[in-house]
Amino acid sequence: MADKFWVANTGNLNDPTNHISLTSGGAPGAGNALTNADDFKADANSGSGTITANASTSMKALLSSGSSIGTFIHNSSVTLSIGGATPGAGNVAFDNSGFTTWTTINAAASILDFIASHTTPQTINTNGKILGTMRLYAAVNPLYTMLSHTVLNGAYQQASGFSGSNVDWNDFNIEALTYTFGFGAVVYMGSGTVSIKATAAGTMWSMGNSAFTAPIAETSTILVANASANTRTFDGGGKAYNNFQYTVAGSTGQLTITAGAGSNSFNTLSFSDVTNARTLAFTAGQTNTINNFNVNGTSGKLMSVVSTSAGSPTTLHLPNPTNVDYVSFKDITVTGNTPLYAGANSVDAGGNTGIVFAPRPNSGMLAIL
Amino acid sequence: MKKYQVTLDTNATAIFEANNEAHARQLAEKDIADAQKIINKNPPEIVSVIEVTEG
Is A367 a residue whose pLDDT tops 60? Predict the structure, then answer.
């Protein structure tokens, strides 16, 4: 266990001979290569210029508070594996506050792994800088707490195999291309916005079905952030979510919501587009409970709500009175506070139960009053 | 039905509704076995099954 310091200005992370010292501002040495027992520190005596992570490297923690080095470059095909048998100093796993610039060369292949093998909670401060792919997993369950908005242009992956991991997003926003949660992953989603940036066809959110895997939704909002013509899938794993929003304008791509082997629930599901028609599909034979079903189209631009399999209905359990308009329904069974009133401009495309294709009868009372 | 918290040697926990402790353990073992079909690695061990509330 050691502190290892960056020294002597610009260089490569795998060059201890010229750039890594056992003391702040001290002499570097060939024997000072980083291991997962070491806190790697860039501090006021590191010189100026750039650190380039040019080869995959292990360290116990990456600490840049007070760094005189301005830029850290994370090359492609380089994995920085952060974590060891004990926590970093001050229980900090990653502090990116000291670098002015963090340059990610490849969103998918510039990877930050958090792999602590102890149970002491630690913090991660990305300082809002744009990172590549982040993977958090461990042999036991450490709790990682974010100290800033996390911005990933690559994937967010939590847990791998049976490793498990607990992460608290700590009320900060988080952005990533896709999200994957494996067995034993627990995420405290807080009050922030969780932006999904993927535009490619495929699964953009994958939550494991296991009872040991859990999103703690709190008051978070999951946002489909970018427009796309492709079909994207949200696999909720049969878990409970707060708000889910796909309202980005000009996005023609279908959203498919699936629930693994269980039933998802949402507090509010918002689905609309002011510029075009779009389809919201739910997996046939599954049930999604939605407290506030906020799905509306506009004239000539209907939102289609369908089952993924024609002729095989999917169930929407709506506990609250629900009115919509300009929506085409097909193979939808509504339960709960029925009927759903679909307004004067919606379309019955067949196979529906629990939906009245008319305005709610007394909906004009407020206008009279 | 009662609620039981099952803890694994990875420190992962989950709540199962079950008739008794043995039933909760059985449900957890099935959950882990289902995951193992996908993950194909050595599964974690159950280290405790504790009743948390009356159902």
Answer: no
